[in-house]
Write a structure and sequence with these properties.
With 153 residues, this protein is α+β, with helices and mostly antiparallel strands. The protein has a single domain (14-152), classed as Glutaredoxin (3-Layer(aba) Sandwich). 28% of the residues lie in helices and 30% in strands. The protein has five helices and nine strands; from the N terminus they run E-E-E-H-H-E-H-E-H-E-E-E-E-H. The chain has helices at residues 44-55, 57-62, 75-85, 98-102, 144-152, and strands at residues 14-17, 22-24, 32-37, 65-71, 90-93, 106-111, 114-119, 122-126, 132-136. Strands 2-1-5-4-3-8-9 form a seven-stranded mixed sheet. A hairpin with a 5-residue loop joins strand 8 and strand 9. The two termini are 26 Å apart.
Length: 153
């Protein structure tokens, strides 16, 4: 779905996280970033993905990664998701859909025969210089952390 390719510069983004603070791609310069896009807080697949990243958070941090989740949900929804599932990373509230569109992960989807516009679950690994190192378009929700760590090897 995304128009971006590995090796491309990551599109700049800026938005608010669940605390109301503003973050941008610049906050992650000099660090490896797992930027994961997901459709909706507290839904089964999104919860499985977030919990996989939560359960392997220290391993991912030890491998040098920062994590940031992005969905069109509000800051308040993100706060509930983080509190309920004890997530140790921030979630960007992309309510105007600028970030999902910049990364090319917003578009037509189908579910149970119904067509609608939504977020295509996609993860971008961004290197220290702000380039896309890896793109996961086939995210294994229950084992996403392992999928990322396997790529690291």
């Amino acid at each position: 779905m995304t128009h971006l390719k590995e090796g491309d510069p990551a599109p700049h983004f800026e938005g608010t996280i669940e605390t109301g603070e503003t973050v941008s791609l610049d906050n992650y310069r000099g660090k490896k970033l797992i930027l994961f896009f997901y459709p909706k807080d507290l839904t089964p697949g999104c919860t499985a993905e977030a919990c996989s990243l939560r359960d392997h958070y220290q391993e991912l941090r030890d491998a040098g990664y920062e994590l940031l989740g992005v969905s069109p949900d509000s800051e308040k929804s993100h706060q509930r998701f983080i509190e309920k599932k004890k997530l140790p990373f921030h979630l960007l509230a992309d309510t105007d859909k600028k970030v999902v569109k910049a990364y090319g992960v917003w578009g037509p989807k189908k579910f149970m025969g119904r067509s609608y516009e939504g977020v295509h679950r996609t993860t971008f690994i961004i290197d220290e210089e702000g380039r896309i190192q890896k793109i996961f378009t086939k995210v294994k929700t229950k084992n996403h952390a392992e999928q990322i760590l396997e790529e690291e090897k």
